[in-house]
Amino acid sequence: MHDGSGRIAVQNLTKQFGAVTAVQNLSFTVEPGSVTGFLGPNGAGKTTTLRMLLGLVTPTAGTATINGRRHHELGNPARVVGSVLDNGSFHPKRTARNHLRVYAAAIGVPDQRVDELLGLVGLAPAADRKAGDFSLGMRQRLALATALLGDPQVLVLDEPANGLDPEGIAWLRNFLRSFAAQGRTVLVSSHLLSEVEQTIDQVVIVSAGTTRYYGPLENLRQSQRPRVLVQPADAPALVTALREAGVDKVEPTADGRVTVTDSTVQQIGDIAAKAGVAVYGIEEQKADLEQLFFQLTTPQYSGAPLPGQPQGAWGGAPSQYQSQYQQPPQPYQQHPGQQYPQQPYQQNYQQPGQGPQPNQGWGGQQQ
Ligand SMILES: Nc1ncnc2c1ncn2[C@@H]1O[C@H](COP(=O)(O)OP(=O)(O)OP(=O)(O)O)[C@@H](O)[C@H]1O
Ligand SMILES: [Mg+2]
């Protein structure tokens, strides 16, 4: 079943729900051996896209395929793709173990795998408790175990970190990295870039159903340009001195300070000293990825600003980095197999002989 491909291809995908365009002409690919973050604010179209990929919603136009096939064309889908879209769909009276056994039987997987997976996701101590009594994080873990039953080559997870405790998030991060390192494919959605930043290689950022950025996370990082804010005794004199020294990305601010882009604190300090301009303060400001994410997306359902709170990237007035990121970074054209060299496929992602680790709580087994 594992042919080592596991490529997800979304091409010109569109979904219209009556007057609502949930997804509009969306295209991206996810290569085996990589983790792709699918990011966007509430209502951006993430779940709808994943549902189309999993054959749960019919696209209005375009295609979403795994291994070049639509979901209904996959012979035994559970063996190809495991997914977590909704962590609440368990029979509430069924124990975690029984829930997994029912699903295992349905796809022809031996019961032994059920106990392996309960251990893997850290649910062994709760195996005989009713799923209906599980906490949100425990349901997430059970949903992940269910997705993994068929030992799939592709994992599609919608907001999997929702409800997980910090240890669970760290465990999930390591798990997804090791899953991808075996040449498998991971597509994981989130509305928080910081939540998946350490896990993903590539990012697809959507907003209002359209792609705002698609490419390696590293390119997005490199697109951040540091900005230095200087408080000089004489702003016009500093601006002149900087320009004469060839530093041309210089802007005086209304409050007598000067912002300089693409220069270092040392360069600016040296030029100011040479020109005899006293500097009372100098500060390097680096936009983090989260701020860049805000610039690339348009929250559709932003709350009203609270009294006395500055309006910023959460949907209010433009943030201080607005001018820096008017143009989204150029999308990256991916060449299959080039960016993410495939690793030899390993049949089992669990290391042989690995039992539950002591003092792990709900942390699951280590990879
Ligand atoms: N079955 C449906 N019928 C009508 N509209 C729908 C349906 N499913 C989704 N939508 C609409 O499509 C848009 C995208 O919704 P979707 O659930 O895909 O967003 P999302 O990116 O997953 O958001 P969130 O971060 O809140 O989970 C929303 O405007 C939503 O109301
Ligand atoms: Mg969603």
Structure explained in plain terms:
By secondary structure, the protein is α/β, with parallel strands linked by helices. It folds into two domains: 214 residues, P-loop containing nucleotide triphosphate hydrolases (Rossmann fold, 3-Layer(aba) Sandwich); 62 residues, 2-Layer Sandwich (Alpha-Beta Plaits). Helix content is 28%, strand content 22%. The strands form three sheets. It has a six-stranded mixed sheet with strand order 5-6-7-3-8-9, with helices on both faces. Helix 4 packs across helix 5. The longest helix is centred in the middle third of the chain and has 16 residues. About 15% of the residues have low confidence. Bound molecules: adenosine-5'-triphosphate and magnesium ion (MG). The site of adenosine-5'-triphosphate (ATP) has 12 residues, from strand 2 and helix 1.
* Total beta strand runs: 13
Number of helices: 11
Q: For the record, what is the CATH homologous superfamily label of the largest domain? A: P-loop containing nucleotide triphosphate hydrolases
Shape: elongated
Helical residue percent band: 25-40%
CATH class categorisation of the largest domain: Alpha Beta
As a whole number of angstroms, the C-alpha radius of gyration is 25 Å
Q: How much of the polypeptide forms β-strand, as a percent range?
A: 15-25%
Average per-residue pLDDT, rounded, comes to: 81
Catalogue the ligands: adenosine-5'-triphosphate, magnesium ion
Q: Major sheet: size, sense and barrel closure?
A: 6 strands, mixed
Poorly predicted ranges: 310-363
User: Judging by the overall fold, what is the CATH architecture of the largest domain?
Assistant: 3-Layer(aba) Sandwich
Which class of secondary structure composition applies to the elements? alpha/beta
Order of the strands making up the biggest sheet = 5-6-7-3-8-9
